[in-house]
Amino acid sequence: MTPNDDDQIVAAAALLRAGGIVAFPTETVYGLGAEVSNFSAVRRVFEIKKRPVDHPLIVHFADSSRLHHWAREIPEQAWRLAESFWPGPLTMILPRSRHVPENVTGGQDTVGLRVPDHPVALALLKALGPEGALAAPSANRFGRLSPTTAAHVREELGDAVDMVLDGGACKVGLESTIVGFNDQAALVLRPGGIPLEALAEVLGGKVIVPGKKNQAVRVPGSLASHYAPLTPLELWPTESLWRRALELEAEGMRMGIMTWSGQNPNLPERKNLLHFAMPAEPKIYGSRLYATLRRLDHDRFDRLLIEAPPDDHAWMAIADRLQRASCAPGFKVKIDDCDASQEDRNITNEVV
């Protein structure tokens, strides 16, 4: 559909007002939306996803000028980020206003807020009126790969969703950057579609990526295991990847191997090793990641071996998703231990 498909938008808005659940496209991934003030509809979102009720949802609304309606005690940094990055793949964690029910926030006094950058999403949110908003996580089962097309939503959730708005493939393909605030610093609680250097440049100051031991606020996608395909996934450094592939092949396993660097040991063709080359440009890689992992899932491999991304800010969101995917039960990670403590990392505008 297109944003001019008025009948579809009107029907979806009416369904949401009546307590229905609508999957809708954003520039990041597809969301599973309930009208934010409808308690039973929000509860149904948790049930459809099989999501723990203490895991907060993000509130999506249409106009950054309405930020004060959904949050209180808004710091100046938040207004500056909203002006620069909304609509866009940025979620900000702020003290919730009385308009945000507690069941949306997982019982916390903070809420994640975002203005999405997709014509269908914005048309739907505007159709809900100036005080309308959607409480929406990604439109998939909890802990699994996020959907980046309407077909992914239908495949995974089927008729559990009342309506799916098709807005094509998501252009970013990874979830939003989540930012919180502490005094004069911005805290990146989940890396995503906004580069860290861009945040630092707008704020003119320090941006902190908290280590796990220092992250007190619960935010979407922050569990050690998340974003996982059904096929067990292993994440390996470039120099170890093909050695691991040959080890597993000797055990009779069939593997999908996904790389970005172009390094290939030039092995003769082997029926149990299928190689998938990904782009070396992080934005393109990120936009294709979930769709590629879903396609590999469909091929019923015994194992997925993924080349670890570079240790570079531009790849941070991709590394985060792959690390969590490899930490699912029965999966394997070889970069950092899934439960290891991490020290805070600072990014300043001086290093841009």
UniProtKB/TrEMBL annotation:
<feature type="binding site">
    <location>
        <position position="51"/>
    </location>
    <ligand>
        <name>ATP</name>
    </ligand>
</feature>
<keyword id="KW-0067">ATP-binding</keyword>
<dbReference type="GO" id="GO:0006450">
    <property type="term" value="P:regulation of translational fidelity"/>
</dbReference>
<feature type="binding site">
    <location>
        <position position="176"/>
    </location>
    <ligand>
        <name>L-threonine</name>
    </ligand>
</feature>
<dbReference type="InterPro" id="IPR038385">
    <property type="entry name" value="Sua5/YwlC_C"/>
</dbReference>
<dbReference type="InterPro" id="IPR006070">
    <property type="entry name" value="Sua5-like_dom"/>
</dbReference>
<dbReference type="Pfam" id="PF01300">
    <property type="entry name" value="Sua5_yciO_yrdC"/>
</dbReference>
<dbReference type="GO" id="GO:0061710">
    <property type="term" value="F:L-threonylcarbamoyladenylate synthase"/>
</dbReference>
<dbReference type="GO" id="GO:0008033">
    <property type="term" value="P:tRNA processing"/>
</dbReference>
<keyword id="KW-0547">Nucleotide-binding</keyword>
<feature type="domain" description="YrdC-like">
    <location>
        <begin position="6"/>
        <end position="194"/>
    </location>
</feature>
<feature type="binding site">
    <location>
        <position position="136"/>
    </location>
    <ligand>
        <name>L-threonine</name>
    </ligand>
</feature>
<dbReference type="GO" id="GO:0000049">
    <property type="term" value="F:tRNA binding"/>
</dbReference>
<feature type="binding site">
    <location>
        <position position="138"/>
    </location>
    <ligand>
        <name>ATP</name>
    </ligand>
</feature>
<feature type="binding site">
    <location>
        <position position="60"/>
    </location>
    <ligand>
        <name>L-threonine</name>
    </ligand>
</feature>
<dbReference type="InterPro" id="IPR005145">
    <property type="entry name" value="Sua5_C"/>
</dbReference>
<dbReference type="GO" id="GO:0003725">
    <property type="term" value="F:double-stranded RNA binding"/>
</dbReference>
<comment type="similarity">
    <text>Belongs to the SUA5 family.</text>
</comment>
<dbReference type="InterPro" id="IPR017945">
    <property type="entry name" value="DHBP_synth_RibB-like_a/b_dom"/>
</dbReference>
<keyword id="KW-0819">tRNA processing</keyword>
<dbReference type="GO" id="GO:0005737">
    <property type="term" value="C:cytoplasm"/>
</dbReference>
<dbReference type="GO" id="GO:0005524">
    <property type="term" value="F:ATP binding"/>
</dbReference>
<dbReference type="InterPro" id="IPR010923">
    <property type="entry name" value="T(6)A37_SUA5"/>
</dbReference>
<feature type="binding site">
    <location>
        <position position="146"/>
    </location>
    <ligand>
        <name>ATP</name>
    </ligand>
</feature>
<feature type="binding site">
    <location>
        <position position="114"/>
    </location>
    <ligand>
        <name>L-threonine</name>
    </ligand>
</feature>
<keyword id="KW-0548">Nucleotidyltransferase</keyword>
<comment type="function">
    <text>Required for the formation of a threonylcarbamoyl group on adenosine at position 37 (t(6)A37) in tRNAs that read codons beginning with adenine.</text>
</comment>
<dbReference type="Pfam" id="PF03481">
    <property type="entry name" value="Sua5_C"/>
</dbReference>
<feature type="binding site">
    <location>
        <position position="110"/>
    </location>
    <ligand>
        <name>ATP</name>
    </ligand>
</feature>
<protein>
    <recommendedName>
        <fullName>Threonylcarbamoyl-AMP synthase</fullName>
        <ecNumber>2.7.7.87</ecNumber>
    </recommendedName>
</protein>
<dbReference type="InterPro" id="IPR050156">
    <property type="entry name" value="TC-AMP_synthase_SUA5"/>
</dbReference>
<feature type="binding site">
    <location>
        <position position="190"/>
    </location>
    <ligand>
        <name>ATP</name>
    </ligand>
</feature>
<feature type="binding site">
    <location>
        <position position="28"/>
    </location>
    <ligand>
        <name>L-threonine</name>
    </ligand>
</feature>
<keyword id="KW-0963">Cytoplasm</keyword>
<feature type="binding site">
    <location>
        <position position="227"/>
    </location>
    <ligand>
        <name>ATP</name>
    </ligand>
</feature>
<keyword id="KW-0808">Transferase</keyword>
